[in-house]
Amino acid sequence: MIEIRIHGRGGQGVVTAAELIATAAFYDGKFAQASPFFGVERRGAPIEAYARIDDKEIRLRQHIYKPDFIIVQDATLLGSVDVLAGAKKETKVIVNTEKDLSKLLPKIKKGQLYSLPATQIAIKAIGKPLINTALVGAFAAVSGLIKISSIEKAIKERFPTKLVQKNIEAMNLAYKSVYH
Which of 2, 19, 68, 132 has its CB 3.0 to 4.6 Å from that of 34, i.e. a possible disulfide? Predict the structure, then answer.
């Protein structure tokens, strides 16, 4: 089973990103689930969401404590939330930032750490800093677990018609923009 933990702030589409990953995996013929973790938080408060992907039915319903992938939608969380909690030696980390990640996350080895300017990509494609589809595209590029066509299908299902093409553009730009 592949476990993905997404960190962000309320209002950034963290839960939607987990749902898009799970839906795309489902369209690829896999078993998947997505779940949020938040309490009474409000817009701007740190939150987490989880996604799991497997070739067999997933019965587990709990937090993800040892993720295979960590997605950080807001790099300001790196100083205030332990986003690497439970990270394994092989965990891959994707961060929305243009900063040098080797200084921000020195514990993560080269080849396991990926960054992209998801906020700038979203502003270019969508016109607003709505970064979740960009980070789902980055996840697809890094992981190879979900197909672009399946993400497109999930986006078409999730977003209003007027936002579909813009979100698909953000996803595609991010897919091509991930670097480590």
Answer: 19
In angstroms, what CA-CA distances link 21 with 24, 39, 105? 5, 22, 25
Is residue 4 within 8 A of residue 64, CB to CB? The reply is yes
Q: What is the pLDDT of residues 32-54, one digit of tens each?
A: 999 988 665 667 788 999 999 99
Q: How many independent structural domains does the chain possess? A: 1
Domain that holds residue 134: 2-177
Question: What would the pLDDT profile of 86-118 be if each residue is shown by its tens digit?
Answer: 999 899 999 999 887 777 777 777 778 899 999
Q: Give the whole-angstrom CA distance, residue 136 versus residue 138.
A: 5
CATH classification at residue 110: 3.40.920.10
* Signed CA dihedral, 143, 147, 148, 151: sign only: negative
SS3 labels along 50-67: EEEEECCCCCCCCCCCCC
